[in-house]
Amino acid sequence: MFDTSDLINKTNSALLEVDYFNVPDLEKPLIVESALKYYTLSKADAIGTKFENLSLEDLLEKINKKLNPNEKRMLFNKYTHFILSMINGIQNSEVIWEISEEKDLINNPLVNFNNEGLLDELVTHEDTDPYATFLFILDIFKNHLFSFKNINAERSR
Predict the structure, then answer these.
(1) How many independent structural domains does the chain possess?
(2) Does some domain include residue 13?
(3) Residue 149, domain member (yes or no)
């Protein structure tokens, strides 16, 4: 099993080493991704995976293939919660992760932004693949988190 009990402590320690809190917000997703990749590489040995030259997404895809469904759920839900906590810190807010019974959401997670352009909610179906959910929220974090905030800031001027 891929033990992630130290995920938050190890990644937060790595973030503190690079003075994460004094980095501009737009750079934070890349720093978080790097810390998460470093953490994942340190744990990959436990399941016989060594792929240092892969992106975080590719590394996790290899790991995903080696885990049983329960292990996948535990691992990727923890990674998703970690990314949501990073978003919460950047936005100084609390993103809610809602599990919906709407069948349309199976493997089609969605996010809602509030009027200020802050990510407000992640909505998934209980049968949504946990790896797909993680990749979805990672993409939002890396590529879209500030887009909506900036669009709404421009509109309010």
Answers:
(1) 1
(2) yes
(3) yes
Torsion of CA 121, 130, 60, 89, to 10 degrees: 20
Separation of alpha carbons 12 and 20, rounded Å? 9
In a domain, 2, yes or no: no
How many whole angstroms separate alpha carbon 133 and alpha carbon 109?
Answer: 7
> For position 3, what pLDDT does the model report?
78
Considering Cα of 99, then 102, then 63, then 30, what sign does the dihedral take?
negative
Q: For residue 65, what are the domain limits?
A: 7-155
Query: Could you give the C-alpha distances from 81 to 3, 4, 123, 154, in angstroms and in order?
Result: 15, 12, 13, 30
| Res 53: pLDDT | 77
111: its two tokens: 């996010």
Number of residues that this document lists for the chain: 157
**Could you tell me if residue 1 is inside a domain?**
no
Question: Could you tell me if 123 and 109 are in contact, meaning their C-beta atoms sit under 8 angstroms apart?
Answer: yes
pLDDT in tens, 90-113: 999 999 999 999 999 998 999 998
